[in-house]
Write a structure and sequence with these properties.
380 residues; 39% helix; globular; alpha+beta; homodimer; 12 helices; Phosphoribosyl-aminoimidazole Synthetase, Chain A, domain 2; 2 domains; six-stranded mixed sheet; seven-stranded mixed sheet; 21% strand; 60s Ribosomal Protein L30, Chain: A
Chain lengths: 380, 380
């Protein structure tokens, strides 16, 4: 049987038809998170400030794990779109959506769902400016987010340079662990706050804006489709390769604890001692980090000499986080700050592969699998 | 059994949650076709030029009658969004979409569908700047269109004044007749060009821009949900009422012919003579005009003293139509120009109803039914 076309296959067709490349006025979103509209192109009277646009759909069957509240589904619908702006260092301005509501939806349901959207959009400084609804077999929502770029340096995916440090914000793998907790229906093993890593994605808007402002970042992308997938995107578009050190991945302590607890419960693992369990848990969490989507952190590259600039950027981010978090905490949220960044690898020119350096059992370099979340290859 | 909430019920909830009203910077799209973003609000360095945004979803089961080609489905997906810009007198700049493709879709299918989008968007002077796709149970596409307003006079739905003439562009009822032809599977009774009234909606972008530029229009909306529904929108938001003269509705000769032919075929109508058949056909077509969606004409109100200004506007529109139509004709299209406008009624203050003046059998004024296309009340 012939393989089904992948999302990328379709996008390639679309890109050709829409001739997204090399448009003088508009930067297409074929290879970046957002389309960019240069205001200067609209009128000679405008300054060279840009607008950014991005559109994304989330649906009950493929994007909302069982157990999510309607408020969370609303929050997530906005957050996944905002994260695309974050990856361009853009400031959100406005959000529009078109929602398909299941026939069982009540007006109270609509209100809770809308409040989730509203709280996410307004927390990140934007406004909902329009919407459209109709009935659908399942809850689905397409959001479009509009942002502005306050400076001229647009951060694309394509400008990673050999020698760049590869960095990631926050923790990796937590959303993947939270998903496996929800799918296995053992939520009691994780705290509410931890599950929100998956159910209330936190777009790194503020971090993206501060990184863009620093002028120190060569390339950036979010990790929503999984770290491996995002690294391959940077690699393909920048023409560089990467070497990742698995020991550097910023794993969250509670994630390790949840995985360890689950390992201990399994009969066949009972003979593992404490250290071995911890080691196995790390390996599982590294796997979640690389190949499961949902983390919505920023993955970016910087020239090594800019490391101290970025350290200063994150010092400022965390200094200001208290004010940032005021609204968000009232929405029952926590655990996103302080936000660190971690150098997890580097860009290289000489190899024709993206490698991962494994050291858990014996040191070896293996090709990173080109895998990640792709709703196209997942059977519903 | 309790009635299902209508689209308007849901929108009311959303509007409350998103507090769309009275925002200083943004004009929400609660009551208008587009959200408007005042660029002046983004930066003091920008002129008071506005961007407009609108988003809309179309789906196989509710929006694409059987028999439509994939190219037409693509064209329609863009056209329904562009029509919202037309109703604000806005010039299209950019189009983004998020498409759900059925699993049976081939890359050739995607290409044909994309070409339909591309030809529509580029015909009306805009560019596709981004897209997102995934698999879905049925073909569905949410488009977001971005436009600019070249002058400061935004035409809303809310400014119709008592005494205003109510005008409509083009013909009314043709899409409804085309739909009934397709549903009854007797396409041989209609020309290909006629069926395009339904399957290749032609947003009145150029007409909307020229009307906005004239400064003579008080209120405007498109007729995509049916004339009656659009008149009620203008009425509710402007606080005026309307009287429509059914004899003035601009019916298309081929539409009358199709309906007459169908009437003659029906056994029970055989006793009608030629005149009676024509009269019955007119009544059916008037009904289609008022209560069936899909026409995508512009419905607008003007102060009576501006009639000659509008006549001059349409003289110019048709003078320039040859150039406008060059591209479009090559896409196999026709019948949209010359574009006339027709005064079909007037806005009144004194009555508490929207009336239709009927004169076919005996003269009478009846309340216009508050009915139209609403995907919420239609069972799939």
């Amino acid at each position: 049987m012939k393989d089904r076309p992948t999302e990328k296959d379709f996008i390639r067709v679309f890109s050709r038809v829409f001739q997204l490349k090399n448009k003088p006025l508009l930067f297409g979103s074929e290879f970046d998170d957002c389309a960019v509209l240069k205001l200067a192109s609209l009128s000679q009277n405008l300054l060279a400030e840009s607008l950014t646009f991005s559109t994304d759909t989330v649906r009950e069957s493929t994007d909302f794990p069982k157990g999510m509240t309607l408020w969370q589904k609303g929050w997530m619908s906005a957050a996944v779109n905002l994260s695309d702006l974050a990856a361009m260092g853009s400031k959100p301005v406005a959000f529009l959506f078109s929602a398909g509501l299941p026939r069982s939806f009540t007006l109270e349901d609509a209100e809770e769902f809308a409040r989730g959207i509203q709280e996410c959009v307004s927390f990140f400084g934007a406004e909902v400016i329009g919407g459209d609804t109709e009935y659908n077999e399942e809850l689905s929502i397409t959001g479009t987010v509009i942002g502005i770029l306050e400076n001229k340096n647009v951060i694309y995916r394509k400008n990673a340079k050999p020698g760049d440090f590869l960095c990631v914000t926050g923790h990796t793998g937590s959303a993947g662990v939270a998903l496996s907790v929800l799918l296995n229906r053992i939520p009691e093993s994780a705290s509410d706050a931890f599950l929100k890593n998956l159910t209330e994605p936190f777009p790194r808007i503020y971090e993206g804006m501060m990184l863009a402002k620093s002028g120190a970042v060569n390339s950036m992308i979010d990790t929503s489709d999984g770290l491996a997938s995002s690294v391959y995107e940077l690699s393909a578009l920048s023409g560089v390769f990467f070497e990742i050190d698995e020991q550097k991945l910023p794993l969250e302590p509670e994630a390790l604890e949840i995985v360890s607890t689950r390992l201990k419960r399994k009969t066949e693992m009972n003979e593992l001692n404490e250290d071995q369990t911890a080691q196995e848990a790390r390996l599982i969490l590294i796997h979640e980090s690389l190949y499961t989507g949902g983390d919505y952190e920023l993955l970016f590259t910087i020239p090594p000499e800019k490391l101290s600039v970025i350290e200063e950027v994150f010092r400022k981010i965390n200094e200001n986080a208290a004010a940032q978090l005021k609204t968000y905490s009232s929405a029952g949220k926590s655990g996103r700050y302080p936000c660190k960044f971690t150098v997890i690898g580097k860009a290289i020119a000489e190899k024709e592969n993206v490698n991962i350096r494994q050291t858990t059992y014996e040191e070896q370099r293996l090709p990173l699998l080109k895998r990640g979340y792709n709703s196209f290859t997942k059977d519903i």
